[in-house]
Write a sequence for this structure.
């Protein structure tokens, strides 16, 4: 179960807003985490707590292929990202890092709303008690999530 | 099936595939650029110690985003990548003396029709201009390819964009694709493939076709495609030393969506800050003073782009207080532009020339901008903070618009 409060963003949040290009040479994941969402919300990295949930509009993560955009969210404690749609490279990177990325098209979540996400049953419980079902992940993606990401998934295959 | 589906079917050992299906396909070429030391870190984390890449002949490393290195950290990343290539017998290391990966790979003859090319760069859609299935992935995804030579793909729906009419003189592929982006929006093709067709496309030279396919990713496309023709073959046959197959789209293939753009009346356009689909006619930009102009990158640093700028600026001086940075996309482009005298013309007009590579496009070096500054750039992105300060503004435009903007010191697209 993922439990946290929401940080709300708009449509087309690009990878430069999630992780500005000027920090791309960094490779240490904790250092990368210090710059999460810095391009759109410089206070985000200080304010986010473990389990918190990013909610956004369409095309979240558009732009560059930088894996840093997922690493910064994952390592700063973000529990999941819910968006109306995701840019595909960001989506793949998130699966690989076992950061849940959930498409919900018709719900406008509030900022600072408490949510509970149940990955097993593919549902989100809102603060007002309502339950939102989302489309379960395809099997190949679920396997990667269950392994804890693509690194442990492949590690097991190559050990 | 669409030609792109036939590529995926062939590479995944199937007779056919359909939209939404998940297939695991063999990769013909995996390219790593110098942003992602993470590729090597993830590779060794997943594979055993002493693990070898699946096929060193199908792997290439290209140093372009941080080339030559601006910081000690970037230098350290390059050093580790060189060591990796050496250990892994990867011969295709294009070091700091080559240029932008999406120009260097075609020039080197390692891009050909019918191939499946995956790179750690979103603009890998560029190679659809050669009839290849090209797509970008993140670092760890690429590491899984280095381990096994395969990657999973969701078979994309295909959008057809038919471009008709006749371009007015001086209107470039950059104007065309910006116009399309402005109309369709930056999420028009998320998870999908985009094919460009029509007489306007057929009349474009390769470098211009590459601009269309490159920027398909700016509408979210997974990959892009232009059916290879005599223009493609002319380029390929001079450089490629590899068998290739041109796949034909079946006549009864059903596109997800079909759009038609008549570009006969198209004039110079620009994507104003801070979204690439915020497209306006350049003449409607208002009185915007420009501090820097950047001509370069995988969407504006080829010979034709530099030639266009040189013709506009020949015998003239750029406006006082404006910096004009010109970065040829590759060593080959630079040498050609020097032979033809374009570099000399541009330097005479006041331009600063820098070494081939991505330059300031991603805000790393060679012309990063500060708060309050405005840059007109031929690069593909004008996102907030893309070229430096989040308080700076980027106008994405064609090399012609960029040259005029340097000449007059404001965002303009023609003689004043």
């Amino acid at each position: 179960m993922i439990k946290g409060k929401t940080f709300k963003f708009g449509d087309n949040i690009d990878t430069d807003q999630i992780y500005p290009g000027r920090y791309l040479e960094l490779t240490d994941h904790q250092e990368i985490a210090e710059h999460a969402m810095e391009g759109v919300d410089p206070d985000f990295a200080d304010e986010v707590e473990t389990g918190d949930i990013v909610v956004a509009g369409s095309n979240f993560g558009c732009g560059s292929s930088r894996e840093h955009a997922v690493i910064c969210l994952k390592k700063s404690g973000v529990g999941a990202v819910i968006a109306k749609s995701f840019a595909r490279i960001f989506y793949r990177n998130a699966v690989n890092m076992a950061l849940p990325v959930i498409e919900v098209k018709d719900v406008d979540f509030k900022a600072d709303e408490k949510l509970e996400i149940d990955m097993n049953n593919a549902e989100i419980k809102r603060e007002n008690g309502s339950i939102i079902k989302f489309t379960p992940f395809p099997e190949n993606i679920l396997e990667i999530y269950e392994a804890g990401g693509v690194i442990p998934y492949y590690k097991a295959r190559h050990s | 099936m669409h030609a792109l589906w036939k590529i995926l079917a062939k590479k995944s050992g199937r007779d056919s595939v359909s939209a939404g299906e998940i297939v695991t396909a063999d990769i013909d070429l995996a390219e790593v650029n110098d942003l992602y030391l993470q590729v090597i870190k993830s590779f060794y984390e997943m594979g055993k110690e002493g693990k070898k890449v699946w096929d060193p002949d199908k792997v290439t490393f290209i140093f372009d985003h941080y080339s030559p290195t601006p910081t000690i950290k970037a230098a350290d990343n390059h050093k580790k990548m060189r060591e990796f290539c050496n250990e892994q017998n990867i011969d295709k290391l294009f070091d700091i003396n080559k240029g932008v990966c999406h120009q260097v790979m075609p020039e080197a003859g390692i891009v050909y029709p019918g191939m499946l090319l995956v790179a750690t760069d979103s603009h890998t859609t560029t190679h659809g201009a050669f009839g290849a299935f090209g797509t970008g992935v993140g670092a760890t995804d690429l590491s899984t390819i280095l381990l096994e030579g395969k990657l999973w793909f969701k078979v994309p729906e295909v959008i057809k964009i038919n471009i008709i009419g006749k371009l007015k003189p001086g209107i470039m592929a950059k104007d065309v694709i910006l116009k399309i982006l402005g109309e369709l929006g930056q999420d028009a093709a998320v998870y999908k493939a985009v094919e460009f067709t029509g007489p306007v496309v057929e009349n474009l030279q390769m470098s211009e076709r590459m601009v269309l396919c490159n920027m398909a990713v700016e509408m979210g496309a997974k990959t892009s495609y232009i059916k290879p023709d005599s223009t493609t073959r002319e380029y390929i046959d001079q450089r490629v030393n590899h068998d290739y197959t041109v796949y034909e789209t079946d006549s009864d293939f059903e596109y997800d969506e079909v759009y038609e753009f008549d570009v006969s009346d198209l004039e110079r356009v620009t994507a104003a800050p801070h979204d690439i689909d915020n497209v306006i006619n350049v003449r409607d930009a208002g009185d915007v003073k420009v501090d820097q102009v950047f001509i370069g990158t995988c969407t504006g640093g080829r010979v034709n782009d530099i030639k266009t700028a040189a013709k506009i600026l020949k015998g003239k001086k750029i406006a006082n207080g404006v910096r004009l940075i010109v970065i040829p996309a590759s060593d080959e482009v630079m040498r050609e532009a020097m032979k033809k005298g374009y570099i000399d013309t541009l330097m005479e007009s006041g331009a600063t020339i820098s070494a081939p590579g991505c330059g300031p496009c991603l805000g790393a070096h060679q012309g990063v901008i500060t708060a309050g500054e405005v840059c007109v750039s031929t690069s593909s992105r004008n996102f907030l903070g893309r070229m430096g300060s989040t308080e700076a503004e980027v106008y994405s435009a064609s090399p012609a618009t960029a040259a005029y903007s340097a000449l007059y010191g404001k965002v303009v697209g023609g003689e004043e």
